[in-house]
Design goal:
With 447 residues, this protein is an alpha+beta fold. The protein is 51% helix and 10% strand. The protein has 23 helices and eleven strands. Helix 7 (160-171) packs parallel to helix 9 and helix 7 runs antiparallel to helix 11 (217-227). The longest helix is centred in the C-terminal third of the chain and has 16 residues, at 350-365.
Length: 447
Amino acid sequence: MLLQIPEKLRRLAEKADFPLYVAGGAVRDALCGFAYDDFDLAAPAPAEAVAALAGACGMQVNGAYKNTGTVNLTDGEYKYEFTSFRTDVYRGGEHAPSQVTFTDDILADAKRRDFKCNALYYDIRKEEIVDPLGGREDIENKTVNTTRDADEVFAEDGLRLMRLARQCAENGFTPSLECVFGAKFNAARIQKIAPERIFTELRLLLHADQKHGIRYGHYDGLELLKGTDVLGYILPELAAGDGMAQRKDFHAHDVLEHSLRAAKYADARVRLSALLHDVGKPYCFLQTGQYHGHDAEGMRIGREILERLKAPKKMTETVVRLIGAHMYDLDGRAKENKIRAFIVKNYDIYDLLLLVKQADFSACKDDLRPCPTIEKWETIRKTMQREGAPFCLKDLKIGGNDLKGLFPPEKIGQALDALLWTCVYDGARNDRTKLLLAAEKLAAKEN
């Protein structure tokens, strides 16, 4: 038995008067030896019949869509999406088919799918694989081929352009030349896809190595987006750095490759920020012939990109701040007090910033040693911690209630900020008695 089938799903298959299949990703992953918990179902049966039978087997039907032959089910532990065997007609690269025709032919259903490795079916009742297009051989060879002519497959649905990169990245597969050329020829079709879907696929791609443990899989996926020209449509500001040379004493790669390698080496928490950290460089170079000020321009451009892709606002703000801060103390000459102030001003994103700095450093010359700037900053932070220096107002040894009567209510916050900064540079001042005396002097000065 290839797949471990949940009990209620097995009961559904046994009661059906038609063959019920697990289709696509779960079958592929099982053959690869990967874990799977994503069950897509298919059968030569209408959605209404499957929905009724599922209810009789104790499963919950969350939605049945007659026009597309789709049923969303759950058994309380797993979620399932059933789709009737069908053929699809698309309109110029749009993700949703414009016409659906139902069929009893498993070969026709297989051919409507994107890649042969996803066109495999596991007959639950018979416990056997049905492979209409030779997808099993592709899996064994770790390759990706389209189910039909590559040009036709990618022309139908522009989202397949990104799915190609992501699935290769997640599974450690290599696309065939025909597949690559088909994607490249149809790269512009990605413009037909909603920005939210593009952003979702991009985020999945940036974490592709985590799906099945394929080391640097996300980087391979990014390189495939570059090679098929899709990157130039979804992130043109970034792709503009292709071939843009940098100082050889600092960099072994051009601007775009440096950015891709920053994402390659980045901790999973900051890969989007690492990918975009130098997005201001192409603009600056094209304007002035230099990269000076690319951090500030990168903040503007990064925000434009993320707003265009409908990224969550909180994520956008964090990424933009990290882009703006990544160049600070590049030469390591900033004085300790300035570093202290910088750490406190950016303390909510400080740990993420260290990860971006490390990714940037590693991507310069593929150097995985600790970034010297980080070592310097962390030495200063540890000194501040030993001293008891506050990193935010809640670390201050007094609070707003202690200042009532000394300052008008509207000025208490301002007074706390002033006291905080006196302690940032000397942690010994973060003492309740000393702070109350300092507060009295500050109040007297203002009066």
